[in-house]
Amino acid sequence: MAGSYGSTLRYKNVERIKSIGKHTLLGASGEVSDFQEILRYLDELIIYDDMWDDGNSLGPKEVHNYLTRVMYNRRNKFDPLFNSLVVGGVKNGQKYLGMVGMIGTHYEDNHVATGFGNHLARPLMRAEWHEDMSFEEAVKLLEKCLLVLLYRDRSAINKFQIAKITEVGVTISEPYALKTFWGFLAFQNPTKGAEGSW
Amino acid sequence: MALRGDWVYENNGGTCVAIAGSDYCVVAADTRLSVGYSIHTRDYSKICNLCDLLFPADKCVLASSGFQGDMKALQKNLAAKHLVSVHLLHIYQHQHNKQMSCPAMARLLSNTLYYKRFFPYYTFNILGGLDNEGKGCVYTYDAVGSYERVGYSCQGTGGALIMPVLDNQLKSPSPLLLPARDAVTPLSESEAVDLVKDVFASATERDIYTVRFPIFFFFQFLAFCESDIFPTQQHAYSSRVLNDPNEYDPLIGFRLSYRIMHK
Protein backbone atom coordinates (compact mmCIF):
# COMPACT_ATOMS: atom_id res chain seq x y z
CA MET A 1 0.00 0.00 0.00
CA ALA A 2 3.02 2.27 -0.38
CA GLY A 3 3.13 5.29 -2.63
CA SER A 4 6.68 6.39 -3.26
CA TYR A 5 8.11 9.78 -4.13
CA GLY A 6 11.38 8.71 -5.70
CA SER A 7 12.87 6.52 -3.00
CA THR A 8 10.96 8.28 -0.22
CA LEU A 9 8.01 6.38 1.14
CA ARG A 10 5.69 9.39 0.81
CA TYR A 11 2.32 7.66 1.25
CA LYS A 12 1.80 4.56 3.37
CA ASN A 13 -1.90 4.02 3.01
CA VAL A 14 -2.67 4.08 -0.71
CA GLU A 15 -5.58 1.87 -1.70
CA ARG A 16 -4.66 0.44 -5.11
CA ILE A 17 -7.63 -1.87 -5.38
CA LYS A 18 -11.01 -0.35 -6.12
CA SER A 19 -14.30 -1.84 -7.16
CA ILE A 20 -15.84 -0.54 -10.37
CA GLY A 21 -19.57 -1.03 -10.75
CA LYS A 22 -20.99 -4.30 -9.47
CA HIS A 23 -18.89 -6.88 -11.25
CA THR A 24 -15.39 -5.49 -11.49
CA LEU A 25 -12.24 -4.98 -9.45
CA LEU A 26 -9.46 -2.69 -10.60
CA GLY A 27 -5.90 -2.80 -9.33
CA ALA A 28 -3.23 -0.29 -10.29
CA SER A 29 0.46 0.35 -10.01
CA GLY A 30 2.27 3.48 -11.15
CA GLU A 31 1.33 7.15 -10.73
CA VAL A 32 -1.13 7.56 -7.88
CA SER A 33 -2.67 10.75 -9.26
CA ASP A 34 -3.10 9.25 -12.72
CA PHE A 35 -4.86 6.31 -11.07
CA GLN A 36 -7.18 8.74 -9.30
CA GLU A 37 -7.92 10.36 -12.66
CA ILE A 38 -8.72 6.92 -14.11
CA LEU A 39 -11.10 6.35 -11.20
CA ARG A 40 -12.84 9.63 -12.05
CA TYR A 41 -13.24 8.50 -15.68
CA LEU A 42 -14.68 5.21 -14.51
CA ASP A 43 -17.04 6.87 -12.06
CA GLU A 44 -18.44 8.94 -14.89
CA LEU A 45 -18.65 5.89 -17.12
CA ILE A 46 -20.53 3.83 -14.55
CA ILE A 47 -22.87 6.66 -13.56
CA TYR A 48 -23.78 7.48 -17.16
CA ASP A 49 -24.37 3.81 -17.81
CA ASP A 50 -26.54 3.49 -14.69
CA MET A 51 -28.66 6.47 -15.69
CA TRP A 52 -30.11 4.49 -18.57
CA ASP A 53 -31.77 2.44 -15.85
CA ASP A 54 -32.30 -0.37 -18.34
CA GLY A 55 -31.15 -3.19 -16.09
CA ASN A 56 -27.89 -3.55 -18.00
CA SER A 57 -24.56 -2.98 -16.34
CA LEU A 58 -20.95 -2.92 -17.41
CA GLY A 59 -19.00 -6.07 -16.67
CA PRO A 60 -15.25 -6.58 -16.27
CA LYS A 61 -14.78 -7.19 -19.98
CA GLU A 62 -16.38 -3.88 -20.87
CA VAL A 63 -14.43 -1.99 -18.20
CA HIS A 64 -11.20 -3.60 -19.38
CA ASN A 65 -11.91 -2.74 -22.98
CA TYR A 66 -12.74 0.85 -22.02
CA LEU A 67 -9.48 1.16 -20.13
CA THR A 68 -7.45 -0.24 -23.06
CA ARG A 69 -8.91 2.49 -25.26
CA VAL A 70 -8.29 5.23 -22.67
CA MET A 71 -4.68 4.17 -22.13
CA TYR A 72 -3.97 3.81 -25.86
CA ASN A 73 -5.67 7.12 -26.65
CA ARG A 74 -3.60 8.98 -24.08
CA ARG A 75 -0.36 7.50 -25.41
CA ASN A 76 -1.43 8.66 -28.90
CA LYS A 77 -1.66 12.17 -27.45
CA PHE A 78 1.86 11.78 -25.99
CA ASP A 79 0.30 12.35 -22.57
CA PRO A 80 0.17 8.85 -21.13
CA LEU A 81 -1.44 7.71 -17.92
CA PHE A 82 1.55 6.29 -16.08
CA ASN A 83 -0.08 3.11 -14.80
CA SER A 84 -0.28 -0.61 -15.25
CA LEU A 85 -3.80 -1.79 -14.56
CA VAL A 86 -5.23 -5.15 -13.63
CA VAL A 87 -8.93 -5.74 -14.18
CA GLY A 88 -10.78 -8.73 -12.81
CA GLY A 89 -14.33 -9.74 -12.18
CA VAL A 90 -17.22 -12.12 -12.56
CA LYS A 91 -20.41 -11.52 -14.49
CA ASN A 92 -23.07 -14.01 -15.56
CA GLY A 93 -20.89 -16.89 -14.38
CA GLN A 94 -18.02 -15.72 -16.58
CA LYS A 95 -14.79 -14.91 -14.80
CA TYR A 96 -12.47 -12.40 -16.35
CA LEU A 97 -8.93 -11.26 -15.72
CA GLY A 98 -7.03 -8.82 -17.88
CA MET A 99 -4.29 -6.27 -17.79
CA VAL A 100 -3.48 -2.96 -19.52
CA GLY A 101 -0.13 -1.24 -19.73
CA MET A 102 0.81 2.43 -19.92
CA ILE A 103 0.81 2.59 -23.73
CA GLY A 104 -2.20 0.37 -24.29
CA THR A 105 -0.71 -3.10 -24.42
CA HIS A 106 -3.38 -5.44 -23.11
CA TYR A 107 -4.14 -9.12 -22.70
CA GLU A 108 -6.12 -11.63 -20.70
CA ASP A 109 -4.67 -14.52 -18.80
CA ASN A 110 -5.36 -16.83 -15.87
CA HIS A 111 -2.98 -14.82 -13.74
CA VAL A 112 -1.55 -11.35 -14.24
CA ALA A 113 0.87 -9.03 -12.48
CA THR A 114 2.36 -5.58 -12.93
CA GLY A 115 5.86 -4.19 -12.51
CA PHE A 116 8.17 -6.35 -10.44
CA GLY A 117 5.36 -8.87 -10.20
CA ASN A 118 6.00 -9.82 -13.83
CA HIS A 119 9.50 -10.91 -12.92
CA LEU A 120 9.00 -12.33 -9.43
CA ALA A 121 5.36 -13.35 -9.01
CA ARG A 122 4.34 -14.72 -12.39
CA PRO A 123 6.88 -17.54 -12.42
CA LEU A 124 5.44 -18.68 -9.09
CA MET A 125 1.91 -18.38 -10.39
CA ARG A 126 2.77 -20.25 -13.60
CA ALA A 127 4.09 -23.08 -11.47
CA GLU A 128 1.24 -23.25 -8.97
CA TRP A 129 -1.89 -21.91 -10.64
CA HIS A 130 -4.49 -24.48 -11.58
CA GLU A 131 -8.01 -24.23 -12.93
CA ASP A 132 -9.92 -25.45 -9.86
CA MET A 133 -8.13 -23.47 -7.16
CA SER A 134 -10.13 -22.72 -4.04
CA PHE A 135 -10.24 -19.17 -2.70
CA GLU A 136 -7.99 -20.17 0.20
CA GLU A 137 -5.42 -21.71 -2.12
CA ALA A 138 -5.45 -18.58 -4.26
CA VAL A 139 -4.91 -16.32 -1.25
CA LYS A 140 -2.07 -18.56 -0.09
CA LEU A 141 -0.43 -18.32 -3.50
CA LEU A 142 -0.90 -14.54 -3.64
CA GLU A 143 0.59 -14.12 -0.16
CA LYS A 144 3.58 -16.20 -1.20
CA CYS A 145 4.05 -13.90 -4.19
CA LEU A 146 3.61 -10.77 -2.07
CA LEU A 147 6.16 -12.03 0.44
CA VAL A 148 8.76 -12.60 -2.29
CA LEU A 149 8.01 -9.12 -3.63
CA LEU A 150 8.32 -7.65 -0.14
CA TYR A 151 11.71 -9.29 0.31
CA ARG A 152 13.08 -8.18 -3.06
CA ASP A 153 11.36 -4.88 -3.91
CA ARG A 154 12.81 -2.21 -1.68
CA SER A 155 9.88 0.16 -2.33
CA ALA A 156 7.32 -2.35 -1.08
CA ILE A 157 6.00 -2.16 2.47
CA ASN A 158 4.47 -4.87 4.60
CA LYS A 159 0.93 -3.65 4.31
CA PHE A 160 -1.42 -5.33 1.90
CA GLN A 161 -5.01 -5.66 0.88
CA ILE A 162 -6.54 -8.65 -0.83
CA ALA A 163 -9.84 -8.36 -2.63
CA LYS A 164 -12.34 -11.00 -3.60
CA ILE A 165 -15.00 -10.77 -6.23
CA THR A 166 -17.66 -13.35 -6.92
CA GLU A 167 -21.13 -13.43 -8.40
CA VAL A 168 -22.35 -12.41 -4.94
CA GLY A 169 -20.31 -9.25 -4.57
CA VAL A 170 -17.06 -7.54 -3.75
CA THR A 171 -15.02 -7.61 -0.55
CA ILE A 172 -11.79 -5.72 -0.15
CA SER A 173 -9.90 -6.72 2.96
CA GLU A 174 -8.65 -4.34 5.62
CA PRO A 175 -4.91 -3.65 5.40
CA TYR A 176 -2.85 -6.39 7.02
CA ALA A 177 0.78 -7.44 7.34
CA LEU A 178 2.45 -10.71 6.42
CA LYS A 179 4.68 -12.63 8.77
CA THR A 180 8.25 -12.22 7.61
CA PHE A 181 11.42 -14.16 8.33
CA TRP A 182 14.68 -12.36 7.63
CA GLY A 183 16.93 -15.10 8.95
CA PHE A 184 17.51 -16.79 5.59
CA LEU A 185 21.15 -17.63 4.99
CA ALA A 186 21.20 -15.70 1.73
CA PHE A 187 19.92 -12.61 3.54
CA GLN A 188 22.54 -12.79 6.27
CA ASN A 189 25.37 -13.52 3.89
CA PRO A 190 24.31 -12.14 0.53
CA THR A 191 27.65 -12.84 -1.19
CA LYS A 192 27.57 -16.52 -0.39
CA GLY A 193 27.60 -18.34 -3.67
CA ALA A 194 29.17 -15.38 -5.46
CA GLU A 195 32.83 -15.90 -4.72
CA GLY A 196 35.13 -12.94 -5.26
CA SER A 197 32.29 -10.52 -4.65
CA TRP A 198 32.35 -8.06 -1.81
CA MET B 1 7.49 14.51 -34.18
CA ALA B 2 11.23 14.78 -33.67
CA LEU B 3 10.46 15.09 -29.98
CA ARG B 4 8.72 11.76 -29.95
CA GLY B 5 10.05 9.55 -27.21
CA ASP B 6 10.80 5.90 -27.65
CA TRP B 7 8.29 5.03 -24.95
CA VAL B 8 5.37 5.22 -27.36
CA TYR B 9 6.39 1.92 -28.90
CA GLU B 10 7.04 -1.52 -27.53
CA ASN B 11 8.05 -4.64 -29.39
CA ASN B 12 5.85 -7.46 -28.25
CA GLY B 13 7.48 -9.91 -30.67
CA GLY B 14 5.86 -12.69 -32.60
CA THR B 15 6.22 -14.36 -35.95
CA CYS B 16 3.80 -14.73 -38.86
CA VAL B 17 4.17 -17.01 -41.88
CA ALA B 18 1.96 -17.45 -44.93
CA ILE B 19 2.23 -19.68 -47.98
CA ALA B 20 0.05 -19.51 -51.08
CA GLY B 21 -0.63 -22.49 -53.32
CA SER B 22 -2.52 -22.76 -56.57
CA ASP B 23 -5.82 -23.33 -54.76
CA TYR B 24 -5.07 -22.79 -51.09
CA CYS B 25 -3.41 -20.47 -48.61
CA VAL B 26 -1.92 -21.21 -45.20
CA VAL B 27 -1.51 -18.41 -42.66
CA ALA B 28 0.12 -19.08 -39.31
CA ALA B 29 1.22 -16.99 -36.35
CA ASP B 30 2.64 -17.85 -32.95
CA THR B 31 0.79 -16.87 -29.77
CA ARG B 32 3.42 -15.45 -27.45
CA LEU B 33 3.19 -11.85 -26.25
CA SER B 34 6.42 -10.62 -24.68
CA VAL B 35 8.29 -7.49 -23.80
CA GLY B 36 12.05 -7.63 -23.28
CA TYR B 37 12.85 -10.79 -21.36
CA SER B 38 9.35 -11.04 -19.86
CA ILE B 39 6.46 -12.98 -21.27
CA HIS B 40 3.08 -11.33 -20.92
CA THR B 41 1.03 -14.31 -22.03
CA ARG B 42 1.50 -17.48 -24.06
CA ASP B 43 -1.98 -17.48 -25.49
CA TYR B 44 -2.52 -14.37 -27.57
CA SER B 45 -3.79 -14.80 -31.11
CA LYS B 46 -2.09 -12.49 -33.60
CA ILE B 47 -4.38 -13.57 -36.38
CA CYS B 48 -7.43 -11.43 -37.08
CA ASN B 49 -10.23 -12.79 -39.14
CA LEU B 50 -11.32 -9.74 -41.08
CA CYS B 51 -14.79 -11.08 -41.47
CA ASP B 52 -17.68 -10.24 -39.29
CA LEU B 53 -20.92 -12.06 -38.64
CA LEU B 54 -22.47 -10.66 -41.78
CA PHE B 55 -19.77 -12.12 -43.98
CA PRO B 56 -18.63 -15.40 -42.46
CA ALA B 57 -16.86 -16.52 -45.61
CA ASP B 58 -14.44 -13.68 -45.93
CA LYS B 59 -11.52 -14.52 -48.12
CA CYS B 60 -8.63 -13.22 -46.07
CA VAL B 61 -7.07 -13.13 -42.63
CA LEU B 62 -4.55 -10.69 -41.25
CA ALA B 63 -1.58 -11.85 -39.21
CA SER B 64 0.38 -9.12 -37.44
CA SER B 65 3.33 -8.82 -35.10
CA GLY B 66 5.02 -5.82 -33.53
CA PHE B 67 3.43 -3.54 -30.93
CA GLN B 68 0.27 -5.14 -29.58
CA GLY B 69 -1.51 -1.82 -28.94
CA ASP B 70 -1.05 -0.83 -32.56
CA MET B 71 -1.96 -4.32 -33.75
CA LYS B 72 -5.29 -4.08 -32.00
CA ALA B 73 -5.87 -0.50 -33.15
CA LEU B 74 -5.13 -1.52 -36.74
CA GLN B 75 -7.51 -4.47 -36.52
CA LYS B 76 -10.24 -2.30 -35.02
CA ASN B 77 -9.63 0.36 -37.65
CA LEU B 78 -9.91 -2.19 -40.46
CA ALA B 79 -12.97 -3.76 -38.87
CA ALA B 80 -14.61 -0.34 -38.66
CA LYS B 81 -13.69 0.40 -42.27
CA HIS B 82 -14.97 -3.03 -43.12
CA LEU B 83 -18.27 -2.20 -41.46
CA VAL B 84 -18.42 0.92 -43.57
CA SER B 85 -17.26 -1.19 -46.47
CA VAL B 86 -20.14 -3.53 -45.75
CA HIS B 87 -22.39 -0.78 -47.00
CA LEU B 88 -20.01 -0.10 -49.85
CA LEU B 89 -19.88 -3.82 -50.44
CA HIS B 90 -23.60 -3.92 -50.80
CA ILE B 91 -23.37 -1.21 -53.41
CA TYR B 92 -20.36 -2.91 -54.91
CA GLN B 93 -22.19 -6.19 -54.97
CA HIS B 94 -25.29 -4.80 -56.54
CA GLN B 95 -23.24 -3.02 -59.14
CA HIS B 96 -20.59 -5.62 -59.88
CA ASN B 97 -22.20 -8.84 -58.71
CA LYS B 98 -19.28 -9.93 -56.53
CA GLN B 99 -17.92 -9.64 -53.01
CA MET B 100 -14.93 -7.55 -51.98
CA SER B 101 -11.77 -9.51 -52.71
CA CYS B 102 -8.55 -10.21 -50.90
CA PRO B 103 -6.58 -7.93 -53.28
CA ALA B 104 -9.01 -5.12 -52.43
CA MET B 105 -8.54 -5.70 -48.72
CA ALA B 106 -4.79 -5.70 -49.37
CA ARG B 107 -4.98 -2.20 -50.83
CA LEU B 108 -7.20 -1.05 -47.97
CA LEU B 109 -4.60 -2.29 -45.48
CA SER B 110 -1.82 -0.52 -47.37
CA ASN B 111 -3.72 2.76 -47.37
CA THR B 112 -4.59 2.36 -43.69
CA LEU B 113 -0.93 1.91 -42.81
CA TYR B 114 0.26 4.74 -45.04
CA TYR B 115 -2.35 7.09 -43.59
CA LYS B 116 -0.29 6.96 -40.42
CA ARG B 117 3.02 7.39 -42.28
CA PHE B 118 4.36 9.97 -39.81
CA PHE B 119 3.19 8.23 -36.63
CA PRO B 120 3.19 4.68 -37.90
CA TYR B 121 1.47 1.61 -36.61
CA TYR B 122 4.46 -0.40 -35.43
CA THR B 123 3.07 -3.57 -36.95
CA PHE B 124 4.41 -6.07 -39.45
CA ASN B 125 1.63 -7.66 -41.36
CA ILE B 126 0.83 -10.49 -43.69
CA LEU B 127 -2.53 -10.76 -45.39
CA GLY B 128 -3.42 -14.19 -46.73
CA GLY B 129 -6.40 -15.57 -48.57
CA LEU B 130 -7.78 -16.39 -51.97
CA ASP B 131 -7.90 -14.03 -54.93
CA ASN B 132 -10.66 -13.55 -57.49
CA GLU B 133 -9.54 -16.60 -59.46
CA GLY B 134 -9.55 -18.77 -56.34
CA LYS B 135 -5.75 -18.84 -56.26
CA GLY B 136 -3.93 -18.53 -52.97
CA CYS B 137 -2.50 -15.08 -52.37
CA VAL B 138 -0.15 -13.60 -49.79
CA TYR B 139 0.47 -9.89 -49.32
CA THR B 140 3.41 -8.78 -47.28
CA TYR B 141 3.82 -5.30 -45.76
CA ASP B 142 6.17 -3.02 -43.94
CA ALA B 143 5.00 -0.77 -41.11
CA VAL B 144 4.21 2.20 -43.37
CA GLY B 145 2.22 0.42 -46.03
CA SER B 146 4.62 -0.67 -48.76
CA TYR B 147 3.26 -3.97 -49.96
CA GLU B 148 3.72 -6.65 -52.54
CA ARG B 149 1.91 -9.76 -53.60
CA VAL B 150 4.15 -12.78 -53.14
CA GLY B 151 3.91 -16.55 -53.10
CA TYR B 152 5.04 -16.86 -49.50
CA SER B 153 6.27 -14.58 -46.76
CA CYS B 154 7.11 -14.22 -43.10
CA GLN B 155 7.21 -11.27 -40.73
CA GLY B 156 8.13 -10.50 -37.17
CA THR B 157 10.96 -11.34 -34.80
CA GLY B 158 11.49 -14.81 -36.28
CA GLY B 159 11.10 -13.57 -39.84
CA ALA B 160 14.81 -13.24 -40.59
CA LEU B 161 15.37 -16.81 -39.39
CA ILE B 162 12.54 -18.27 -41.44
CA MET B 163 12.74 -16.36 -44.72
CA PRO B 164 15.88 -18.08 -46.10
CA VAL B 165 14.42 -21.48 -45.27
CA LEU B 166 11.25 -20.63 -47.18
CA ASP B 167 13.38 -19.29 -50.08
CA ASN B 168 15.33 -22.53 -50.12
CA GLN B 169 12.34 -24.84 -49.86
CA LEU B 170 9.88 -23.03 -52.07
CA LYS B 171 12.24 -21.82 -54.82
CA SER B 172 9.99 -19.11 -56.06
CA PRO B 173 10.76 -17.98 -59.64
CA SER B 174 12.63 -14.69 -59.79
CA PRO B 175 10.33 -11.68 -60.07
CA LEU B 176 12.74 -10.41 -62.75
CA LEU B 177 11.81 -13.19 -65.16
CA LEU B 178 9.86 -12.18 -68.25
CA PRO B 179 7.20 -13.12 -68.93
CA ALA B 180 6.22 -13.09 -65.26
CA ARG B 181 5.75 -16.47 -63.67
CA ASP B 182 3.36 -17.52 -61.00
CA ALA B 183 4.82 -17.13 -57.54
CA VAL B 184 2.60 -19.72 -55.88
CA THR B 185 4.32 -22.72 -54.41
CA PRO B 186 4.12 -26.10 -56.14
CA LEU B 187 3.73 -27.82 -52.76
CA SER B 188 0.56 -29.62 -51.82
CA GLU B 189 -1.33 -28.07 -48.92
CA SER B 190 -0.25 -30.74 -46.44
CA GLU B 191 3.40 -30.27 -47.46
CA ALA B 192 2.99 -26.53 -46.99
CA VAL B 193 1.47 -27.01 -43.54
CA ASP B 194 4.31 -29.37 -42.61
CA LEU B 195 6.84 -26.80 -43.77
CA VAL B 196 5.21 -24.10 -41.66
CA LYS B 197 5.25 -26.36 -38.62
CA ASP B 198 8.94 -27.08 -39.21
CA VAL B 199 9.99 -23.46 -39.64
CA PHE B 200 8.15 -22.54 -36.44
CA ALA B 201 9.82 -25.38 -34.58
CA SER B 202 13.21 -24.10 -35.74
CA ALA B 203 12.49 -20.41 -35.15
CA THR B 204 11.42 -21.26 -31.60
CA GLU B 205 14.85 -22.72 -30.93
CA ARG B 206 16.64 -19.45 -31.73
CA ASP B 207 14.11 -16.65 -31.20
CA ILE B 208 12.97 -16.00 -27.63
CA TYR B 209 9.92 -14.12 -28.88
CA THR B 210 8.46 -17.04 -30.78
CA VAL B 211 6.55 -19.87 -29.19
CA ARG B 212 6.23 -23.28 -30.68
CA PHE B 213 2.52 -23.78 -31.14
CA PRO B 214 1.29 -21.54 -33.91
CA ILE B 215 -2.32 -20.89 -34.78
CA PHE B 216 -3.10 -21.81 -38.35
CA PHE B 217 -5.62 -20.50 -40.77
CA PHE B 218 -6.17 -22.47 -43.87
CA PHE B 219 -8.04 -21.47 -47.00
CA GLN B 220 -8.93 -23.98 -49.64
CA PHE B 221 -10.57 -23.06 -52.88
CA LEU B 222 -13.36 -25.46 -53.74
CA ALA B 223 -15.42 -24.31 -56.64
CA PHE B 224 -17.09 -21.33 -58.10
CA CYS B 225 -20.71 -21.65 -57.34
CA GLU B 226 -23.70 -19.49 -57.49
CA SER B 227 -26.20 -18.44 -54.94
CA ASP B 228 -28.87 -15.80 -54.78
CA ILE B 229 -26.84 -13.50 -52.63
CA PHE B 230 -23.39 -13.93 -54.09
CA PRO B 231 -23.98 -14.99 -57.70
CA THR B 232 -20.33 -15.42 -58.63
CA GLN B 233 -18.78 -15.99 -55.27
CA GLN B 234 -16.50 -18.95 -54.74
CA HIS B 235 -16.80 -20.80 -51.49
CA ALA B 236 -13.83 -21.08 -49.21
CA TYR B 237 -12.98 -23.71 -46.65
CA SER B 238 -11.10 -22.47 -43.71
CA SER B 239 -9.73 -24.32 -40.73
CA ARG B 240 -7.26 -23.87 -37.97
CA VAL B 241 -4.96 -25.89 -35.81
CA LEU B 242 -6.01 -25.35 -32.25
CA ASN B 243 -3.38 -24.21 -29.85
CA ASP B 244 -3.68 -27.37 -27.79
CA PRO B 245 -0.56 -29.15 -26.55
CA ASN B 246 -2.52 -32.42 -26.53
CA GLU B 247 -2.49 -32.30 -30.28
CA TYR B 248 1.26 -32.18 -30.20
CA ASP B 249 3.07 -35.48 -30.53
CA PRO B 250 6.78 -35.22 -29.66
CA LEU B 251 7.67 -37.80 -32.31
CA ILE B 252 5.57 -36.64 -35.23
CA GLY B 253 5.07 -33.04 -34.21
CA PHE B 254 1.72 -31.41 -34.69
CA ARG B 255 -1.13 -33.54 -35.80
CA LEU B 256 -3.23 -31.26 -37.87
CA SER B 257 -6.78 -31.26 -36.72
CA TYR B 258 -9.08 -29.66 -39.20
CA ARG B 259 -12.05 -27.83 -37.92
CA ILE B 260 -13.79 -27.45 -41.20
CA MET B 261 -16.16 -24.59 -41.52
CA HIS B 262 -18.26 -24.78 -44.60
CA LYS B 263 -20.24 -21.78 -45.47
Strand order in the largest sheet of chain A: 3-4-5-6-7
How many domains of chain A, as an integer?
Answer: 1
What is the CATH architecture assignment of chain A? Answer: 4-Layer Sandwich
- Give the low-confidence spans of chain A: none
**Name of the CATH architecture of chain B:** 4-Layer Sandwich
- Look at the structure and give the mean pLDDT of chain B: 77
Would you tell me the overall average pLDDT of chain A? 96
The CATH topology of chain B: Glutamine Phosphoribosylpyrophosphate, subunit 1, domain 1
Overall geometric form of chain B = globular
Q: Quaternary state, please?
A: heterodimer
Helix content of chain B: 25-40%
- Most residues in contact: chain pair: A-B, 19 and 21 residues
Strand order of the largest sheet of chain B: 10-1-2-11-12-15
How big is the Rg of chain A?
18 Å
Task: Estimate the global geometry of chain A from the Cα principal axes.
Answer: globular
- The proportion of strand residues of chain B reads 25-35%
Model description:
The complex is a heterodimer of chains A (198) and B (263). The mean pLDDT of chain A is 96. Chain A has one domain: 4-Layer Sandwich (Glutamine Phosphoribosylpyrophosphate, subunit 1, domain 1), CATH 3.60.20. Chain A is globular and about 65 Å long. Chain A is of the alpha+beta class. Chain A has 6 helices and 9 strands. A 5-stranded antiparallel β-sheet of chain A has the order 3-4-5-6-7, covered by helices on one side. Chain A has a two-stranded antiparallel ribbon with strand order 1-2. Chain A has a two-stranded antiparallel ribbon with strand order 8-9. By secondary structure, chain B is of the alpha+beta class. Chain B contains 4 helices and 15 strands. In chain B, the strands form 4 sheets. Chain B has a 6-stranded antiparallel β-sheet, with helices on one face. Chain B has a 5-stranded antiparallel β-sheet with strand order 5-6-7-8-9. In chain B, strands 3-4 form a two-stranded antiparallel sheet. The C terminus of chain B is likely disordered. The chains are: A alpha+beta (198), B alpha+beta (263). Chains A and B meet through helix 2 and strand 7 of A and strand 4 and helix 1 of B.
